[in-house]
Amino acid sequence: MFRYPLFSPTNITMAVLNFTLCCCLPPSKPSSLPFLQIPNSSHGRTQFKFTFTDDSSINLASKACITALISASLFFAADPALAFKGGGPYGSEVTRGQDLTGKDFSGKTLIKQDFKTSILRQANFKAAKLVGASFFDADLTGADLSDADLRGADFSLANVTKANLTNANLEGALVTGNTSFKGSIITGADFTDVPLREDQKEYLCKIAGGVNPTTGNDTRETLFCK
To answer: What is the C-alpha separation between 12 and 73, in angstroms, rounded?
Structure first.
């Protein structure tokens, strides 16, 4: 049997709504009471619609209370972080399935952070600690991953085209045949124990060069380039 958490954002929001309606509205005939419509929530947001059957009977004080009511509800419903907490230690911000285009994560500690299916185009991960992070089916087109610690990160089905992987450490990272590195810069990147398909390896060997400053490993050697 499924149970809703007692202090979930939805329950807190409804408590605020009920309390404010009871305290703010003066006695009135039934036809003048506001009717609150709450449609199904989507994407972690709840929309509220008030309909008054007899607007002339609602005095100014009541309308002011309704305004306060709406403001209070938006505080809980408009913030997606309150509706769903993302995985990992990056505060309570949501990073899974989000449009994070151009967001700056440079230098941050994001160990095992969940970026599954997120849009991360031109995002800045320079020198970020991303050990064990998941970029499953994420779009990293043009992202800056230079000097990033990506050991054990999951790039399955990810689009890593035109990304900057200069001096990145990808030891033990997981990729699949659909992971694309087309047009990326991999100078000094370490691909030790990354299970690349032969055609992926062949492509990367054409553009590989340099030595990773952290591990001391030659990029071409980690790719077993001929």
So the answer is: 9
